[in-house]
Specification:
A hairpin with a 7-residue loop joins strand 7 and strand 8. This protein folds into 4 domains: 78 residues, no CATH class; 30 residues; 138 residues, Mog1/PsbP, alpha/beta/alpha sandwich (Protein Transport Mog1p, Chain A, 3-Layer(aba) Sandwich); 117 residues, Up-down Bundle (Four Helix Bundle (Hemerythrin (Met), subunit A)), CATH 1.20.120. 22% of the residues are buried. By secondary structure, it is α+β, with helices and mostly antiparallel strands. Helix content is 39%, strand content 13%. It has 8 helices and 10 strands.
Length: 449
């Protein structure tokens, strides 16, 4: 280690920094404090200057010595105090490379508004100067449309006149249906030139009640006949006698509206014993079906179209028409009657099976017979559509037959005759099957049992 060191710029000799070993196990250590300045207490050298105390023995690792420089120490601010004033230029994020993908996208985004403004300026410069609006702008299209309409009407009239002058045929106008006729609650309009008739044509299998007869002219037998046909019942609303004489065994009806009334329409009906064909319309009522027949020569398309136009004007006055489907009123009566029969069979039928004496059997059988009689009376007073008339009549017959069978069973049980009781019991079984079949037929018509 050197004993003397070259002087510093201020003329003072400073000893080298001493490197001492830190305390064993210590993590941090700090250099010794600065030596006292000149003039302070201490030994003096021969030149009369201030002397320093002899430095302790230093430890040199690998012959390393500290440089002869003064290292100032920065003491941080204590906790809770204001930070020291920042000097110099603030920190700035380094600029990205122009080749970075985000930099290229940012450059394009920055250039897009300038490009749009440039294109907008070019369009505005190329666009013509807007013209000031005038009152003609509002009324001009209207006047032009009126002029075109007048011109088109004039051309059409000129063409029509030329056609008539050249003898060309003109499209016929539809025959107006302006005449009116009524009979037995049936009102109908018919074309001009037609006349009322007195005698209906003879249509095999169809018997009208007080019909309304209209004829196309005096020479031909074509025309319209409308009236109530009591035998027109069932789901197809056709008389059974007419069904037997049809040349085509099956007909496909169509559901149509005659005014506000639902009806079934049969086109091209041909029967044995009648020359020509006819179109039938059938409307169900409580007394049968209102049937309207357009009769004429087969293939007379114009006549049948005119007849259908007339049929569409049909109105019923004082005649109740039913819908083509199940009638709600009759369905309620039918459900109530079936509930009455079920209740009687559950209570009195159980007592009849458990009875041990003839008197007890007679009393239970009589109660069941009275329930069947009551159900038949309720159904007999219900308004029934011609569509349901056949099945309704079959059910009434079956219910009354079973009521009679239970009455005979009660009489045989009361008299004690075994043979009579056995025969009455067989009749009850047979009539019970008839009731079930009639109820099933009504179910096929849309009624729930």
């Amino acid at each position: 280690m050197r004993d003397k060191h070259p002087p510093t710029d201020d003329g003072n000799d400073r000893p080298p920094l001493e490197v001492t070993k830190p305390f064993e196990g210590a993590r941090f250590w700090s250099p010794p404090s600065r030596p006292p300045a000149s003039g302070e207490a201490g030994e003096s050298d021969e030149s009369g200057g201030a002397t320093h105390e002899p430095a302790p023995e230093t430890v040199v690792d690998n012959e390393f010595t500290w440089p002869d420089v003064h290292i100032p120490f920065v003491i941080p601010n204590p906790p809770g105090s204001a930070p020291a004033e920042r000097r110099g230029r603030s920190w700035k994020r380094p600029r990205r490379s122009p080749y970075h993908p985000n930099a290229r996208r940012a450059k394009r985004q920055a250039a897009a508004p300038r490009a749009r403004r440039a294109r907008r300026a070019e369009r505005q410069a190329a666009a013509p100067r807007a013209r000031r609006a005038t009152p003609w702008d509002a009324i001009g299209p209207v006047v032009a449309f009126a002029f075109v309409a007048v011109a088109a009407a004039a051309l059409a009239y000129a063409g029509y006149s030329i056609g008539r002058g050249d003898g060309q045929p003109v499209a016929p106008q539809p025959t107006p249906i302006s005449q009116q006729a009524a009979r037995a609650g049936i009102e109908l309009r018919y074309p001009e030139g037609w006349a009322k008739g007195s005698e209906p044509p003879e249509i095999p299998g169809v018997n009208f009640t007080t019909p309304l007869v209209l004829r196309a002219d005096d020479e031909s037998e074509a025309g319209i006949v409308a009236g109530v046909v009591k035998a027109a019942t069932g789901s197809d609303l056709l008389p059974r006698t007419l069904r037997k004489q049809l040349r085509i065994s099956t007909l496909a009806p169509q559901r149509v509206l005659l005014g506000d009334t639902q009806a079934l329409r049969y086109r091209g009906v041909e029967v044995d014993g009648f020359d020509g064909a006819f179109t039938l319309y059938a409307i169900p009522t409580a007394e049968g079906s209102v049937v309207l027949a357009c009769h004429g020569p087969a293939g007379a398309r114009a006549f049948y179209e005119l007849c259908e136009r007339s049929a569409a004007t049909l109105r019923l006055d004082g005649v109740r028409a039913f819908a083509l489907g199940p009638a709600p009123g009759y369905g309620e009566r039918l459900a109530a009657a079936i509930d009455t029969l079920d209740g009687a069979l559950k209570t009195s039928g159980f007592r009849l099976r458990e009875a041990r004496t003839g008197r007890g059997q007679a009393r239970s059988a009589a109660a069941i017979g009275q329930a069947f009689t009551k159900a038949a009376a309720e159904l007999d007073s219900a308004p029934v559509s011609a569509r349901d008339r056949d099945s309704h009549n079959e059910l009434l017959v079956a219910i009354r037959a079973q009521a009679d069978a239970y009455g005979r069973l009660a009489t045989a049980a009361r008299s004690g005759r075994r043979d009579g009781y056995r025969q009455a019991a067989d009749a009850v079984r047979r009539t019970d099957g008839g009731v079930r079949e009639a109820v099933a037929a009504l179910e096929t018509l849309g009624y729930a049992s």
